[in-house]
Each structure stands twice: as structure tokens, then as C-alpha cells.
Automatic annotation (TrEMBL):
Alphabetized InterPro entries for the sequence: Aldolase_TIM, Class_II_FBP_aldolase, FBA_II, Fruc_bis_ald_class-2
Protein name in UniProt: Fructose-bisphosphate aldolase
Enzyme class per UniProt: lyase
Lineage: Bacteria, Bacillati, Bacillota, Clostridia, Peptostreptococcales
Keyword Lyase in record: yes
Active site: D81 (proton donor)
PANTHER family: D-TAGATOSE-1,6-BISPHOSPHATE ALDOLASE (PTHR30304), D-TAGATOSE-1,6-BISPHOSPHATE ALDOLASE SUBUNIT GATY-RELATED (PTHR30304:SF0)
Names of the cofactor(s): Zn(2+)
Organism: Aminicella lysinilytica
Annotated Gene3D superfamilies: Aldolase class I (3.20.20.70)
Family the entry assigns: Belongs to the class II fructose-bisphosphate aldolase family.
One MF term in the entry's GO annotations: zinc ion binding
Cofactor note: Binds 2 Zn(2+) ions per subunit. One is catalytic and the other provides a structural contribution.
Residues where dihydroxyacetone phosphate binds: G180, G211, A212, S213, N253, I254, D255, T256
Pathway stated in the Swiss-Prot or TrEMBL entry: Carbohydrate degradation; glycolysis; D-glyceraldehyde 3-phosphate and glycerone phosphate from D-glucose: step 4/4
Length: 308
């Protein structure tokens, strides 16, 4: 069935594992991820961004996810990723999602609290859970000065006040990750002391790590080997994810690694089989590549095998 993340997070919170939250926007990606979750007997969150919703049209994504549940019998949470305002959160609550993120991180603290509270009120009244975000994820281009970057990190005392005032179910924190394939220029760095402090102040609140793709070298290399041009890509090392899940991080967001795994395989198949033009012949291998990658994440990085 489609379930909320409440039970998943309750079990993960004080254990050394986390739930993978994978971004979806088409059938092959959904099937690739769900097959991996089923094979590993792992809890799963499928998440949809505003862009993905627009690309696939909302009803298609919901029906595809419902089909995945019906076909496999697995329990999944269907989550809105980075909802920008109350309206999109409401629309997803009304449309069958079990979880929504309201991302008010661009707003001043009080405004973020005000809108998050409004989303929480509506969502909870409809049996849906809410993730919010405090602090800003900064990309490589923003990180001119280390000080400037750290100024955007989540302030632990604010996190405690925010959770208290909003009643939010989970909280995304900024500790040095960013979205996309270019997370660090030099040595990767995450502020684990800050994460531990946040977790100690709000020990009952599941924390969320956005921008958690590793930008796996094998996929970047394969893309580049078969005609791609993705120089200097760098993500969060796997050991840092393994560490984060021990300190309150219950949800680990992964999109970029899905994109890279699928694209690397599609590129390889097309280059090696130039006469091929049946989409099933490259999307099928792309889907299988996603399954292998997600199984690796679940088993070797998130430690979530057999946690269902
Ligand atoms: O948070 C970013 C996710 O990777 C979704 O990306 O907005 O391009 O769908 P998107
Ligand atoms: P990545 O770009 O690191 O995969 O992060 C995805 C994410 O945080 C989606 O919300
Ligand atoms: Na955990
Ligand atoms: Zn994100």
C-alpha cells in the first residue's frame, strides 16, 4: 500500500540505517527502484519534484506508483520533493501523496515557520506527513568562502525552535551537501559536529539529507567514455552517508545518481549498438542499471536491507 513515513522513520531513527528517497519521473525509473527495494526487502520513499510532476503530468506519476504497489505488493511512501508553496503541497495531499515537503528555506525564519505550520495543519488533517527545511543547501558556485557557505548551514537552536513551533514530522538540514553533480571543488566536507548537535537537541525528529548522491565514479566515467562531457563531477563519499545515518538522518535523498546510472547505460548501449532504435532496447538496460545501483545503495550505504 501507499503508506506514510511515520513507521519507517520511527524504526530508523535510533538505528544505524536510513531510508532511501529516490526521485522519479517515468515508468522505467519507478520500476528500477521498486525492483531494488523488493529484492532487498527494504523500505522505500519515491519522491516527485515540481519539475517531475510537470514533465510526466501529476496523474501519470500517481498511477504509475500505484501500479508499482499493486504489481509488487510493497509498501511505499509517495512524497512531494521541495514543494515551493502551500498550494502545491495541498494539491499533492489532495492527489494521493502520503508525504509532502514544504521547502521554505528561501524565506526568513518566521515566514518559513508560518507557511510550514499551515502545510502541517492541512496535511495532518488528511493523514499526510510533512518535511520542512531549515538552512540553505549551497552549491559549488556559492562556496567562494568557507565562512559564507557555513553561514547558510542549519543553526541547531533554530532547528529546535522550528520543530517545536511547526509540529513538522521531519526536518531537512544543511550541513554541506548540495544538489546535482558538482558538490565540492576540493575535499568533500560535511559538518558532522553540527549534525550531532541538531540531533541532540531534537532527538525525536527524523532528519533528512538532501543532495546526498555520491556521483559514483563508474557512471561518470562510463558517460564520458561513451560521448558524454561531465568533467569535475563530485558527490558525497559513501562513508559520509554511512556516518550521517548514525546521527538522526533517516531519509537520504538521491536523484543525481539515478540520472547518471541510467544515462551511462543508455549511452553505452547506443554507442555499442548504433543500428538499434527500439527504445526498449536502451531504456530496459537503463532500468536494470538503476536497479543495480539502488540495491547497492540500500545494502552497502544505507544499511537498509531487510528493514521492511
Ligand atoms: O531537488 C532536486 C531534485 O534533484 C529534483 O530535480 O527539479 O530537476 O526535478 P528537478
Ligand atoms: P542529489 O542531487 O544529490 O541526488 O540530491 C537529490 C535531492 O536532494 C532531491 O531533493
Ligand atoms: Na538512522
Ligand atoms: Zn533536495
Amino acid at each position: 500500500a501507499l503508506v506514510t513515513t511515520t513507521e519507517m522513520f520511527k524504526k530508523a531513527l535510533n538505528s544505524d540505517y536510513a531510508i532511501g528517497a529516490f526521485n522519479v519521473n517515468n515508468m522505467e525509473i519507478i520500476q528500477g527502484i521498486v525492483d531494488a527495494g523488493q529484492a532487498e526487502n527494504a523500505p522505500l520513499i519515491l519522491q516527485v519534484s515540481a519539475g517531475a510532476r510537470k514533465y510526466a503530468k501529476p496523474v501519470y506519476l500517481v498511477k504509475l506508483v500505484e501500479a508499482a504497489v499493486e504489481d509488487t505488493g510493497v509498501d511505499l511512501a509517495l512524497h512531494l520533493d521541495h514543494g515551493a508553496d502551500f498550494e502545491i503541497c495541498k494539491s499533492c495531499v489532495d492527489g494521493g501523496f502520503t508525504s509532502v515537503m514544504y521547502d521554505g528555506s528561501k524565506h526568513p525564519f518566521e515566514e518559513n515557520i508560518r507557511i510550514t505550520k499551515q502545510v502541517v495543519e492541512y496535511a495532518h488533517a488528511h493523514g499526510v506527513v510533512v518535511e520542512a527545511e531549515l538552512g540553505k543547501l549551497s552549491g559549488v558556485e556559492d562556496a567562494v568562502h568557507v565562512d559564507a557557505r557555513e553561514a547558510s548551514f542549519t543553526v541547531p537552536e533554530e532547528a529546535a525552535e522550528f520543530v517545536e513551533k511547526t509540529g513538522v514530522d521531519s526536518l531537512a538540514v544543511a550541513i554541506g551537501t548540495s544538489h546535482g553533480a558538482y558538490k565540492f571543488k576540493g575535499t568533500p566536507y560535511l559538518d558532522f559536529e553540527r549534525l550531532k548537535t541538531i540531533h541532540s537537541l531534537i532527538p525525536d525528529t527524523p532528519l533528512v539529507l538532501h543532495g546526498a548522491s555520491t556521483v559514483m565514479k563508474e557512471f561518470v566515467d562510463r558517460c564520458n567514455e561513451y560521448g558524454g562531457d561531465i568533467p569535475g563531477a563530485q558527490g558525497v563519499p559513501e562513508d559520509m552517508i554511512r556516518e550521517a545515518v548514525k546521527h538522526g538522518v533517516c531519509k537520504v535523498n538521491i536523484d543525481t545518481d539515478l540520472r547518471l546510472a541510467m544515462t551511462a547505460e543508455v549511452r553505452r548501449v547506443l554507442v555499442e549498438n548504433p543500428a538499434e532504435f527500439d527504445p526498449r532496447k536502451y531504456l530496459g538496460p537503463g532500468r536494470d542499471a538503476i536497479t543495480r545501483m539502488v540495491r547497492h545503495k540500500i545494502k552497502d550505504v544505507l544499511n537498509a536491507t531487510n528493514r521492511r
